Amino acid sequence: MSGKQFIIKLVIFGALNLFILTLLLYSVSERHRDMHLSYAQTESNLLVIGKNEHYPIVFLGTSRGRVFSRDGNHEMVEKILGKKVANLSKGGGGGLMPMDVHLCFFMNQGNTADHIIYLVDPFVFYSSINNEHNDFFLRDEPFELFIFLKLIKDRYPLDRLSSYLQNIAVTDWRKISRYAAPGLTNGRLKKIDEEKLEKARKHYLEKCDRNSFVAYGHVVDDINRRVKTHGATITYVMLPLLMPDFPGLSEVDAFLRETADRQAGVFYINCASCMQDKKFYYDHMHFNKTGIAYFLKHCILPIF
């Protein structure tokens, strides 16, 4: 057998195996589409969001956005805003890349939105732990071939692909995807601890160097393009921070201002210093129920 024939057979063999693998993965994809849970029951997006639904408002963000739907808060959010809301925010620091995955799948299912509200934390723009190396944003999501292929396209590392494939073996999603610490948003921060804030500032500062505070800024363009292709608008809202010198805040602020000025249908609001009272938080980062209600009424409602 000549070398050329060997290579041709090798390619055919590889393509055949890839085809068989794709069929196998397709056969286990969508297995849990018939399970529909509420935000109060699960941290999963796939088990809440269905197909061909219209949502006037869709939230993107980290756990600081996810608290809007925990502890029964989702109903309060929809009541204050007077609109149906989908919350795609993910706990565990889901950054720009994870949000792009969830938004992409949301729209691929035929769902539509009028307005996307991205609740921004500065660190999602510069930390790989919150982007391609994040191992939380799919931990409570059933396996979907579409998402797996999206991860490959976006060059997620092999350990993240392997981790997601392990979700195929999960059967009790009602239990697995349940929030592990209910009731936190009913609490209230007792005092603002400057020592803890300084420790947190150093923690985030170590995640990058000063030249890469917007290292993942290109994902913003991908998200904006996707949003506008589906006929929606998007507003980036810098979330209130108890730390005025949060690493990357000024750089991300400048980047989002420039992006909003440059692109039609893209807007930006900086609320970083809007809520400095401890009564709005249950820890130094997350809103409690009082904070969620105040933020919605004073920062989000004026958008509409």
Describe the model.
By secondary structure, this protein is of the alpha/beta class. The chain has 11 helices and 5 strands. It has one domain (31-177, 186-303): Rossmann fold. It has helices at residues 3-28, 63-66, 73-81, 96-108, 145-153, 158-165, 173-176, 194-205, 217-229, 249-262, 289-300, and strands at 54-60, 85-87, 112-120, 233-238, 266-270. Strands 2-1-3-4-5 form a 5-stranded parallel sheet. β4 (233-238), α10 (249-262) and β5 (266-270) form a beta-alpha-beta unit. It starts with a helix and ends with a helix.
Entry summary:
Helices cover 41% and strands 10% of the residues. With 304 residues, it is of the alpha/beta class.
Q: Could you name the key traits of this structure?
A:
304 residues, Rossmann fold, five-stranded parallel sheet, 11 helices, 41% helix, single chain, alpha/beta
